[in-house]
Structures are given as C-alpha cells and as structure tokens.
C-alpha cells in the first residue's frame, strides 16, 4: 500500500477434510413486493464446522433487506450469509438456521449453495 499501511483481511472459513453439507431453503411467506425465507444448513460431513459462510445466487431480481441469526450481504445476484457468532459451530449431523426478508418477488429456489467453499446438496 502506498501509505505503508497493511489492511488486515477478513478471515474466510476454509473447508475442512470431511466437509459436506445440505441446505433447506423455504420461502415462509410472500406478499406484493416482499417475502421472508428460512434457511437451514446441515453439516452432513464428518468434521465440525467452526465458523461458516454460505453462498448462493438468486435467479431473479430479489434483494435481501434484513436478516436474523446471520449477517447477509448481497452484490448483484450473489448472496453471502455468515454465522452470527452464537451459531458458528455446526457439529457433524447438526444444523444452523437463519432467515431473511427480501424485496421483490421470490424466484425459483436457489441452487448451487456453497458452505465455506464446499458445494452443498
């Protein structure tokens, strides 16, 4: 960096050997111009997850406007949900759940979820 400062990067959880996951994505309710969605991430692998980041892409013009039990950010169609701290650990066979509110009309349920870089089913 020109000023000599070296920014500290945000740590990214990395996939562990034995990592595997499954995601349930359910629109809870919808109305003209908005919707809520519940998401459950299941650890189907053999190792615990300690800190998680779930990524997916929307198929339409949906926009995240708020979330609970995760920090959710969006850039274009790409969405990333990061654990809220209190739910960062997911034991093998365990799960973490979060939800969000969005604007627009919900399109098809996303596919291609990734958990810490591992493709989920």
Task: Provide an overview of this structure.
This protein is 0% helix and 50% strand. The protein has no helices and eleven strands. The strands form three sheets. Strands 6-7-4-10-11 form a five-stranded antiparallel beta sheet, with no helix packed on it. The model has no long low-confidence stretch (mean pLDDT 89).
Question: What is Rg?
Answer: 15 Å
Order of helices and strands: EEEEEEEEEEE
Order of strands, main sheet, comes to: 6-7-4-10-11
Shape: elongated
Helical segment tally? 0
Biggest pleated-sheet summary: 5 strands, antiparallel
How many β-strand runs? 11
How much of the residues is beta strand, in percent?
over 45%
Q: Which residues form runs of ≥5 with pLDDT under 50?
A: none
Fraction in helix: under 10%
Q: What's the overall average pLDDT, rounded?
A: 89
| Secondary-structure-derived class | mainly beta
- Termini separation comes to 41 Å
Task: Give the secondary structure arrangement, pairings included.
Blueprint (H helix, E strand, L loop, with lengths): L20 E11 L2 E10 L5 E2 L2 E5 L5 E6 L1 E6 L2 E6 L5 E2 L4 E9 L10 E2 L2 E2 L2
Features:
121 residues; five-stranded antiparallel β-sheet; single chain; 0% helix; four-stranded antiparallel β-sheet; elongated; mainly beta
């Amino acid at each position: 960096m020109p000023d000599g400062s070296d920014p500290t990067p945000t740590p990214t959880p990395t996939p562990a050997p034995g990592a595997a996951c499954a995601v349930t994505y359910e629109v809870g309710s919808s109305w003209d111009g908005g919707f809520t969605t519940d998401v459950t991430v299941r650890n189907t692998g053999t190792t615990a997850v300690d800190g998680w980041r779930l990524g997916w892409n929307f198929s339409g013009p949906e926009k995240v406007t708020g979330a609970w039990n995760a920090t959710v950010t969006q850039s274009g169609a790409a969405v990333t949900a990061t654990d809220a701290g209190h739910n960062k650990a997911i034991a093998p066979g365990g799960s973490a759940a979060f939800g969000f509110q969005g604007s627009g009309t919900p399109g098809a349920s996303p596919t291609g979820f990734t958990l810490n870089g591992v493709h989920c089913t």
